[in-house]
Amino acid sequence: MTLKLGVPSKGRLMEKTFDWFGARGLNLQRTGSDREYAGVVTGIDGVDLVLLSASEIPRELAAGRVHLGVTGSDLVRDTLAAWDDQVKEIDLMGFGHADLVIAVPQVWVDVDCVADLDSAAAAFRACHGFRLRIATKYHRLVREFLKREGVADYQLVDSQGATEGTVKNGTAEAIADITSTGDTLRANHLKVLSDGVIHRSQATLFKSRKADWVGRDRETLSVLMDRLGVLT
Amino acid sequence: MSRLPKAAVRDEALRLRAMFEATGAAPVDPAILQPAATLLDLYGEDIRARAYVTADPLRGEQMLRPDFTVPVVQEHMDGGAEPARYTYSGEVFRKQENDETRPNEYFQVGLELFDGRDPEAADADVFASIAEALQGLPVKPATGDIGITSATLAGLTLSDDRRAALMRHLWRPRRFRALIDQFAGRKPVPTHRKAVLAIMAQGGDPMQGSGIRIGLRSETEIRARLDRLAKDAVQPPLPASEVDLLDQVTGLKDVAPVALERLRDVAVDLPTLSPAVARLERRFEAMAARGIDVDSLPFETSFGRTTLEYYDGFVFGFSAIGRPDLPAVAIGGRYDALTKVLGRGAEIPAVGGIIRAEVALHLREKEGAA
């Protein structure tokens, strides 16, 4: 058996992941043509590189099909129920920073915090006959946050992309989305609620609690952890 | 709890339903697939985390029934005559997000009464019918009354807006507490709100220079809320003595006669509470008339305030003695407000409760073996 390490298959997240392992003496690289999703790990024995979409890595970890995986902490928390029982955070990797935030139109001068949003939602529902719509693709994280905060009279509407545009397009009143600089939000006439940060996400190395950790994999893991300078 | 054979649980459910039928209840059998829109509008996003949603190409989003209450109310509204008494048994479906060992489909047996002639007698009737169905099992009752808290709020020094905000969050204790602290002046006014209020106080317009208007929430709605904020800013704080009174009422937990006595004392300072206390007393009397030992019956004002959102009056539950690991054997309560939402304003006085057949059978078998 070999230990399977799942990493993002493209873009800056992949490059930064390769750099991060590289700085720790492990050389990750893609092989074949630049269109082929194949890769190798050199500098350690018994580790297979699996290139995956970052959004599929939580699921693969939970299913135990990869032993270790690199993905955003937001994706793990949103995709997996009781995520802590299924995977373990090994190390925060210090890149891929993004915040999941709740944003409302800038013109809502009466709304600054989550409590204001709740109050505005009550009035909105009374006026329009339906719950105030919040567009997002992070359903679990947003729903749990709003439940914890005691917000009522809202509904989530699914938006898998261009979420910042939904308010202008009339399909939502507010949004919950990932932002790193806030530029896109501002360009779309939105503002972040002052206490509306749901989760501060970054690229994180996770270990699967569901994978088979047999014989050599455990040894490989301890060698690997030693090299990465983290404790399991 | 290890799962019992489904056939045995179904038999137990039918046996319990037959007991309710013997009290004069008509059996009803709502569909398993329910239109999701009604349930979502009623319960909000929380239900999406708990109920299975599936899609039908023509009917749109459907939900595997998470409970029977809504379809039974709808069936009744579509042509039931009052008074009405219904019973049902069947499976409900609930996602379990945090605990794999909890069943995601299980049998409920229910009793629902639509009868406005004597609400307290109806409350006692449902409670006693369920208590009788559970007779001989090692269970203990719990009772509460959401109406006591709302009647208390009615008597506090609050503007209508403030009272409405608290009523809306009766079921969310954390937000409720934050609002109380805010209204009592125990929390500083947020900086942003101070700034907006200052602009308005100087005759300025906070909306000036606020950018282009996007979205469905209109300028009129924004201005209406700004006006409410300005009005709220000059409200007197909720006196500390009244916060204490509210805490006394919501924290009350004792046996029925003592609780009643304590609430009568509070009602001396808070006359709006009197009708609710009188209702509570009538309910206890009606329960005693049904053979319930009211002297030892526990009462807790806030029972069910976190979990049973649509109940707005009497609430009750039965739990297995010494088995906190088991879910409640039975729960129920009054839900007039729910029928009001479903009936688009037409309110039908309604009270009901359910028994979890598998938990009841589990206890019965344990008793038999003991």
From TrEMBL, chain A:
Pathway: Amino-acid biosynthesis; L-histidine biosynthesis; L-histidine from 5-phospho-alpha-D-ribose 1-diphosphate: step 1/9. Keywords: Amino-acid biosynthesis, Glycosyltransferase, Histidine biosynthesis, Transferase. It is an enzyme of class 2 (transferase). Residues 54-228 form the ATP phosphoribosyltransferase catalytic domain. Its EC number is 2.4.2.17. It comes from the Bacteria. It catalyses: 1-(5-phospho-beta-D-ribosyl)-ATP + diphosphate = 5-phospho-alpha-D-ribose 1-diphosphate + ATP. One of its GO terms (molecular function) is ATP phosphoribosyltransferase activity. InterPro entries: ATP_PRibTrfase_cat (IPR013820), ATP_PRibTrfase_CS (IPR018198), ATP_PRibTrfase_HisG (IPR001348). The keyword Nucleotide-binding does not apply. PROSITE patterns: ATP_P_PHORIBOSYLTR. One of its GO terms (biological process) is L-histidine biosynthetic process. GO terms for cellular component: cytoplasm. Catalyzes the condensation of ATP and 5-phosphoribose 1-diphosphate to form N'-(5'-phosphoribosyl)-ATP (PR-ATP). Has a crucial role in the pathway because the rate of histidine biosynthesis seems to be controlled primarily by regulation of HisG enzymatic activity. This is ATP phosphoribosyltransferase.
From TrEMBL, chain B:
L-histidine binds at D67, F68, T69, R94, Q108, E112, R305, Y310, Y311. Gene3D superfamilies: Bira Bifunctional Protein, Domain 2. It comes from the Bacteria. Signal peptide: none annotated. Residues 5-229, 236-352 form the Class II Histidinyl-tRNA synthetase (HisRS)-like catalytic core domain. One of its GO terms (biological process) is histidyl-tRNA aminoacylation. Keywords: Glycosyltransferase, Transferase. GO terms for cellular component: cytoplasm. GO terms for molecular function: glycosyltransferase activity; histidine-tRNA ligase activity. PANTHER family: HISTIDINE--TRNA LIGASE, MITOCHONDRIAL-RELATED, HISTIDYL-TRNA SYNTHETASE. NCBIfam families: PRK12295.1-5. This is ATP phosphoribosyltransferase regulatory subunit.
